[in-house]
Amino acid sequence: MIAAIILAAGMSKRMGQPKLLLPWEGTTVLGKVIKTFKQAGIEYILVVTGGDRELVETNLTELATQFPTRSVFNPEFAQAEMLSSLQRGLAALPSEAEAALIGLGDQPQVQARTVRRVCAAFVKSGAPLVVPSYQLRRGHPWLVARSLWGELIKLPPSQSPRSFLQRHASDIYYVNIDTPSILEDLDTPEDYAQSGKNS
Predict the structure, then answer these.
(1) Strand 99-104, strand 2-8: pairing
(2) Which pLDDT tens digit goes with each residue over 82-114?
(3) Domain spans of the chain?
(4) What is the 3-state secondary structure (H, E, C) of 167-189?
(5) Taking the model in full, what pTM does it have?
(6) Which CATH class is domain 2-194?
């Protein structure tokens, strides 16, 4: 089983409001990410919460009738970077998961076909790391096999997922994607306005 971790613990400082709860195609930004992963066939989705925890988890409860998910809280969200949320998520995944797909809660542009291609590449290649690439730039969601989880979980705060991927550059299987959506996230009001999906 391939399980998904959606990192949703940020504090939305640059957005000025909880960006994961902004409207997006009839749901919220986070709801759209979850919907896309479900459409791609991912059955186990774990959302790591942090900033605006109560609001985000209330939204997850509202979404649960359509898209059941689980959540885990990262108490270090205010002091730590993305790595601590990833570590929290990996530690909470079920034993039957053989790989984790790492997505961002503020990346609603990502397409279901991209998620399916990353997962299919893992099944076909058996590579411990599968990363989508657009014009030679790495994006999300990327996949890491269970064999590397222990190393990720033990990384010190001075490290990052990027440094981990650089250290394992020779282990990465790249999937070339023809859309920049794997690079696009929502950080500022301008990002959201330019997306044209704020309805």
Answers:
(1) parallel
(2) 899 999 999 999 999 999 999 999 999 999 999
(3) 2-194
(4) HCHHHEEEEECCCHHHCCCCCCH
(5) 0.93
(6) alpha beta
